[in-house]
Amino acid sequence: MTPARSTATNAAKKTPAAKAPPAPFDPAAALLEAFATSDRINHYLLAHLPAEAWAAAPPGGKGRTIAAIVAHMHNVRLMWLKAAGAAALPAPLDRATVTPAQAADALAESRAALADVLAAALAGDGRVKGFKPDVVGFFGYLVAHDAHHRGQIAMLARQVGHPLPQSAMFGMWEWGSRGKD
């Protein structure tokens, strides 16, 4: 091979290949992933909740236990699934007898069913039967409802003398990490 040809061949080998343009942003997929991440945070909270806090009576004996709050979170999801006309509804939870494992399984089931409702609305006209104004508002409602009750759970665990570990308190805010759980 001649020196000129060798240089040209080496230059061609060093030229990086053209990269394909990134796929366009998919808002529907991003909303569904954010909904899944929010639910993973629910599971992260349950996994780090001290067992003694689960059924501890609230201060003053008034209000819900943590078990009752988590049952409520799931049962409200069922209410919306029914209103939206979902084909199949997961079983409701009994606030007085639910275990953490049952709650985790039920939350996973209701999240999957709601993800189907969200996906159908995102692929369709953007409406969710029984909810106004639209699917994005419904998504916001669902995430806000869960987040509200996560805050209640964290506060109640502290009030009953069994606080969440500080790492879990911060970990609930690590959406980048929870998106990979």
TrEMBL record:
<dbReference type="Pfam" id="PF05163">
    <property type="entry name" value="DinB"/>
</dbReference>
<feature type="binding site">
    <location>
        <position position="72"/>
    </location>
    <ligand>
        <name>a divalent metal cation</name>
    </ligand>
</feature>
<dbReference type="InterPro" id="IPR034660">
    <property type="entry name" value="DinB/YfiT-like"/>
</dbReference>
<feature type="binding site">
    <location>
        <position position="145"/>
    </location>
    <ligand>
        <name>a divalent metal cation</name>
    </ligand>
</feature>
<feature type="binding site">
    <location>
        <position position="149"/>
    </location>
    <ligand>
        <name>a divalent metal cation</name>
    </ligand>
</feature>
<dbReference type="InterPro" id="IPR007837">
    <property type="entry name" value="DinB"/>
</dbReference>
<protein>
    <recommendedName>
        <fullName>DinB family protein</fullName>
    </recommendedName>
</protein>
<keyword id="KW-0479">Metal-binding</keyword>
<comment type="similarity">
    <text>Belongs to the DinB family.</text>
</comment>
<dbReference type="GO" id="GO:0046872">
    <property type="term" value="F:metal ion binding"/>
</dbReference>
<feature type="compositionally biased region" description="Low complexity">
    <location>
        <begin position="7"/>
        <end position="18"/>
    </location>
</feature>
<feature type="region of interest" description="Disordered">
    <location>
        <begin position="1"/>
        <end position="22"/>
    </location>
</feature>
